[in-house]
Design a protein that fits this description.
The complex is a heterodimer of chains A (757) and B (386). Chain A has 34 helices and 21 strands. Chain A is globular and about 85 Å long. Chain A has an 8-stranded parallel sheet. Chain B contains 11 helices and 16 strands. In chain B, strand 4 and strand 5 form a beta hairpin. In chain B, helix 4 packs antiparallel against helix 5, helix 4 runs parallel beside helix 9 and helix 6 packs parallel to helix 7. Chain B is globular. Classes of the chains: A alpha/beta (757), B alpha/beta (386). At the A-B interface, helix 32 of A face helix 8 of B.
């Protein structure tokens, strides 16, 4: 269908559109018109992605003189593929209606691990080793050597791609990663480098958050992007954490030992080079004297890492004299590592700011701030000169230089925390030195500045006014949409009391109370006997889950649960968890029924859907607050209070509730689906907690369901499940219209936007 | 009479069970608590626009009746299987002791099955029913396929005890082995009344479902509490219907929906000639040995036209020669499924009292009391059917 939104003709590949999708597009269009940033919250299962894609591409089509580029960021490769598949559908529709003139180029970009087609490279087990294996075959000096010596192995795909030179382009179309690999195989070109090259010319690029937010990567991939781009961060409820992680480094004693090994190897290399090819070292020295930026004038196969600091903060000057010579630089690094080693031997927890940390480095080992700042670039240059290709071996020294550069560059928003042991296991010494970033706005600032529109969207962005403060920007539109439903297919409940009317909570003082544990167990036991197929339970932490499962086991509750459903548990081991999930799904499929115990903030809570019969009920045991005694969190809270005037309590509640909303949101992925959500903690009934849940959950949370005991909840569950099992009318013929056709839109015109709100 | 007795027995039995349960569990629902936790009678009330209370459902009731009429109209001229071999599978697992239906699920199900069996033979005199129960993880055959409602009901009422888990797969396997033997002109069907929310199976149930699908067994399930994925899948694969009951009246409605014959599966609907006998009713006062009860009886009964054996009731299969015995009204009654009468037009009561006939044409009852109209129409349909 196609329809007008103000002056833009929108091409939408389906015959019907949900009213909230239409409203979403209207708001998005306004943000694009204003060339500003926006925050949009819309529940999952309402077709956010297609609404976004179809509006932005249609917007480009309607303004041919000033085309905008779409940079679409997803969290996982799976989401990337889904987005591109939707885009393909949309593109075919547009081609069908407008003819070949609207051809566009859209592609996904991912790491070598996902794009490589060279069988000997892609078989390596992790991302870093794939990268290193690729470099071994494609680095410029390797290829130079291969010309002289035919025994040196190179990658034929890369060679072909190089040979084709400017002819190596992708014809317009939509390419998923799969398509890129197929295309590369057909032509014999390397899909990874081809995609990297084509990103500059593409109309739509779909890639991961890191390509924009992590300065180490963004410097290489995204620096050529034009200002007239729309950046979309999908599923962005955790974007502040991504930003912070991009600028945080942690160093353990293993890292230091590894770095030492790296240094030894590098000094051997230098000695060897001195004996054989001293000219190369001298050339490097000269280059550094002249202050030539390393990036930019190197062959593309070699640009493999960029500065961890943000582009604006990098000094545009020559490398300081005392680390220009390779030996000197190595000795500086050696001293730095010695210093870190000394710091790690502490018995107490230490916390200090970057300024005093740098000062103490300066006094103790005589490395000043400027030298620290250049560590990363200098290392990079040295490794190129030494022609090191197995970069995965050198991760440790890179980490050290990372830290040095960051600590030398920033004075605010960071802190150094040294912990001699893990708080929870004080007997096992495990010293760790962490450089933590507290300010999410640092990493995302260049993105906001460089691009005209940034769209941050997710199913759970509530409270929507906190994100602009955390990320320090001014959205022109911030809007939360609800879901239009033909029937009340979600049933959130707040359970505050057990069947014995005693309150349940995971509050610190109540947490280990046997009465609470028993009541939680009874709740689950009652629920497994009335809910069919799959149930998902989220606990606040691994340790709490272990504890409560133990106590359920001892009191025999677990055994009773097992009579109704099988029990699966998420562990920290990915393989084990995957296996457990697999079997959980099988148990749901074959009718045996199953319960999955999982942890909020875990892998499962973030990325796995429990839609349809895989999750008819999700129980959130407790409020998933962060571990509030963690030094990092405390430091961040302090920073937030001082800089952004965000109260500790507010931030903690916000963070806990968005995690809870994420967890329970797993259960419903489309409008035809149905599911129940139980928030089992008395604290959820308080207004300050509850009001931070997303609007689409709140609108279904009836007042009568706010203060339930177990028996009441069981009764409600029974009734709800019976009601939902009845056949229903998908189009919503009775009164409420939830699917709009083209005529409906024309009839009401722009009135719909007002109709909804 | 018989029915009342058995019900009384059950109730006593149940009370015993409940008592035991209460002693075992420390749940301790007192009577007042039960009304609060389980019955919640206040939820059945709704307010109308002016704030007055009105009982729920009026509208949905009329709507349902209207829909049923429409459905019979659209279903006309569809080929239907008139000779049905139906197994009713009753779940007597632990879940059937739940008391969300009063007095408990098992009793309610038994009551509905009884009503269904009578209705079924009324509508499908040429068909046969068998009963299966699921409990303790195994399936038992309660009665073999047969055409006598009383014997089924008697067998069912005698075996009402619940325990253990239900196994869908074992049930289907048993049904499959039993239904595989029946002649090809008969329609194989299963109706499950499933209380449990899970199934405890020994093997891969998907294989069993495929087996049922390939032997053209139409499986329908009526759930008593919630939608279960595997049941939905089973019904979808085998072409049956899946429904979940809200309460007892709804359960009754759902069960009775299975009484009229379903549309025949096209590829399987080959016409076939079947040999049948139309026995004559024996004269009063004649003494003969009854072949079904194995004793001498006076008067009544029917005589098989082929082997001259005496049988007590029709329709049935002759115990001696295996001939299908029916009476012609039975055939006629089955026939109306193939050519249902068109639905009646809903006539609005006009303001002019002279134009509307005061009394029903068929039964001479007064039509003037509004609200009873629909009832009369249905009544008329029933009369004409017969």
């Amino acid at each position: 269908m196609k329809f007008q939104i103000e002056d833009v003709t929108v091409y939408f590949p389906y015959d019907n559109i949900y009213p909230e999708q239409y409203a979403y597009m209207v708001e998005l269009k306004r943000a694009l018109d204003a060339k500003g940033h926006c925050l949009l919250e819309m529940p999952t299962g309402t077709g956010k992605t297609i609404a976004l894609l179809s509006l932005i591409t249609s917007y480009t089509l309607s303004k041919p003189s000033n085309p905008v580029k779409l940079l679409y960021c997803t969290r996982t490769v799976h989401e990337m593929e889904k987005t591109l598949a939707e885009l393909k559908l949309l593109h075919n529709y547009q081609l069908h209606h407008l003819g070949p003139s609207v051809r566009m180029l859209a592609l996904g970009l991912s790491s070598r691990k996902n794009l490589c087609i060279n069988p000997s490279v892609v078989s390596a087990e992790n991302r870093d080793s794939v990268d290193a294996a690729c470099r071994k075959l494609t680095a410029s000096w390797v290829r130079a050597m291969a010309i002289e010596n035919p025994n040196v192995r190179t990658c034929s795909f890369f060679d072909n791609y190089e040979k084709a030179a400017s002819d190596a382009i992708l014809p317009p179309g939509v390419y998923t990663l799969q398509d890129l690999r197929a295309f590369g195989k057909e032509k014999g070109w390397c899909p990874y480098f081809l995609a990297r090259h084509m990103v500059q010319f593409a109309n739509v690029v779909v890639y991961s958050y890191q390509y924009l937010l992590d300065p180490k990567v963004a410097g290489i991939i995204s620096k050529e992007m034009q200002r007239e781009s729309v950046v979309v961060f999908d599923e962005a409820h955790n974007i502040d954490n991504v930003c912070i992680e991009a600028l945080s480094v942690s160093v353990r004693s293993q890292t230091l030992e590894g770095a030492m090994r790296n240094l030894n190897r590098m000094s051997q290399e230098i000695d060897r080079l001195k004996a054989t090819d001293a000219g190369r070292l001298r050339a490097e020295y000269n280059r550094l004297v002249e202050g030539l930026a390393q990036r930019g004038n190197l062959p593309i196969g070699d640009t493999w890492f960029a500065n961890p600091a943000l582009p604006d903060d990098i000094l545009k000057e020559a490398v300081p004299g005392n680390i220009r010579r390779a030996e000197h630089f190595l000795s500086v690094l050696r001293r730095l590592i010695q210093y870190f080693k000394g710091r790690l031997q502490t018995e107490n927890v230490e916390k200090e700011g970057p300024v005093s940390f740098v000062a103490s480095i300066n006094t103790q080992v005589g490395i000043d701030q400027k030298m620290l700042r250049f560590c990363y670039d200098r290392l990079h240059s040295l490794m190129l000169t030494l022609e090191i290709t197995d970069t995965d071996e050198f991760l440790h020294i890179q980490t050290i230089c990372d830290l040095a550069t960051l600590v030398g560059t920033y004075t605010r928003g960071f802190s150094i925390i040294i912990e001699p042991f893990d708080e929870r296991m004080p007997h096992i010494p495990d010293p760790v030195l962490q450089l933590c970033c507290h300010d999410a706005s640092l990493a995302i600032k260049p993105v906001f500045e460089r691009f005209q529109s940034v769209v941050i969207t997710s199913g759970t962005l509530s409270p929507i006014d906190l994100y602009p403060r955390l990320l320090n920007f001014n959205p022109v539109v911030s809007q939360s949409f609800t879901m239009s439903l033909t029937r009340d297919c979600i049933c959130p409940m707040v359970l505050t009391r057990g069947s014995d009317q005693l309150p349940v909570s995971t509050k610190y003082d109540l947490r280990s109370d046997p009465g609470v544990e028993k009541n939680y167990g009874k709740l689950l036991l009652e629920m497994v006997s009335v809910v069919p197929d799959g149930i998902v339970c989220f606990f606040v932490s691994y340790s709490y889950m272990d504890g409560i499962v133990n106590s359920w086991h001892e009191s025999g509750i677990l055994k009773e649960i097992m009579q109704h459903k099988l029990v699966f548990i998420e562990t920290q081991d990915v393989v084990e968890t995957t296996l457990a999930l697999d079997n959980y799904r099988r148990a749901c499929d074959c009718g045996r029924g199953a319960v999955f115990f999982s942890v909020a903030r875990g892998k499962v809570a973030e990325g796995i859907d429990f839609d349809r019969h895989y999750g008819r009920l999700v129980i959130m045991f407790g409020v998933p607050f962060q571990y509030t005694l963690s030094r990092i969190l405390l430091a961040r809270l302090e920073y937030l209070r001082e800089t952004f005037q965000i109260k500790e309590g507010d931030f903690l509640t916000f963070d806990a509730l968005r995690q809870a909303a994420q967890c329970v949101g797993r259960v419903i992925r489309s409008k035809a689906d149905y599911g129940m959500m139980i928030f089992a903690d008395k604290r959820y009934s308080r207004h300050d907690k509850r009001s931070k849940l997303p609007g689409w959950i709140l609108s279904h949370l009836r007042d009568a369901h706010l203060n339930l005991s177990t028996d009441m909840a069981v009764h409600i569950a029974r009734e709800f499940l019976r009601k939902m099992a009845q056949p229903y009318d998908k189009t919503g013929a009775m009164g409420k219209k939830t699917l709009l056709s083209q005529e409906d839109l024309q009839k009401t015109g722009n009135g719909i936007g007002e109709m909804l709100f | 009479m018989l029915r009342k007795e058995t019900n009384g027995e059950e109730r006593r039995l149940n009370r015993d069970e409940e008592d035991e349960e209460e002693e075992e569990n420390d749940r301790g629902h007192d009577a007042w608590e039960r009304t609060y936790a389980d019955e919640r009678s206040w939820e059945a009330l709704q307010e109308d626009e002016s704030g007055l209370l009105r009982p729920i459902d009026n509208k949905t009731l009329y709507h349902a009746q209207y829909r049923r009429r429409l459905r019979t109209a659209t279903a006309a001229r569809i080929q239907k299987g008139l000779i049905r071999y139906l197994y009713i599978v009753i779940d007597l697992s632990r879940a059937a002791t739940e008391t969300d239906y009063k007095p408990n699920r098992m009793v309610v199900v038994a009551r509905q099955v009884e009503a269904f069996i009578r209705e079924f033979f009324d509508q499908n005199p040429l068909s046969q029913i068998g009963l299966l129960t699921l409990k303790d993880g195994v399936a038992h055959c309660l009665t073999e396929l047969g055409g006598s409602p009383e014997s089924h009901i008697k067998a069912l009422m005698g075996k009402l005890v619940c325990s253990g888990d239900a196994s869908l797969q074992n049930g289907l396997d048993l049904v499959h082995s039993l239904l595989n033997q029946i002649p090809s002109y008969g329609h194989r069907e299963v109706l499950m009344l499933y209380s449990a929310l899970s199934t405890c199976d020994p093997g891969d149930i998907m294989e069993t479902i495929q087996k049922c699908k390939s032997s053209k067994i139409r499986c329908s399930v009526i759930g008593l509490s919630a939608e279960l994925y595997i049941c939905k899948y089973l019904c979808l694969e085998t072409g049956g219907s899946y429904s979940v009951s809200l309460d007892e009246p709804h359960l009754k409605e759902l069960v009775l929906e299975h009484a009229p014959p379903p549309p025949a599966i096209a590829e399987f609907a080959i016409s076939n000639l079947i040999k049948m006998g139309f026995p004559q009713r024996a004269a009063e006062g004649v003494i003969s040995i009854c072949s079904c009860h194995k004793e001498a009886k006076v008067g009544g009964g029917y005589t098989c036209p082929r082997c001259k054996a005496r049988v007590c009731e029709l329709p049935t299969e002759c115990c001696i020669c295996g001939l299908t015995l029916v009476s012609s009204p039975h055939l006629a009654r089955s026939y109306h499924h193939l050519f249902p009468i068109t639905p009646f037009d809903d006539v609005a009561v006009s303001s002019d009292p002279h134009k509307v006939p005061k009394n029903c044409f068929g039964c001479q009852q007064s039509l003037l009391a509004p609200g009873k109209r629909l009832l009369f129409l249905l009544y008329v349909i029933m009369i004409r059917d017969e």
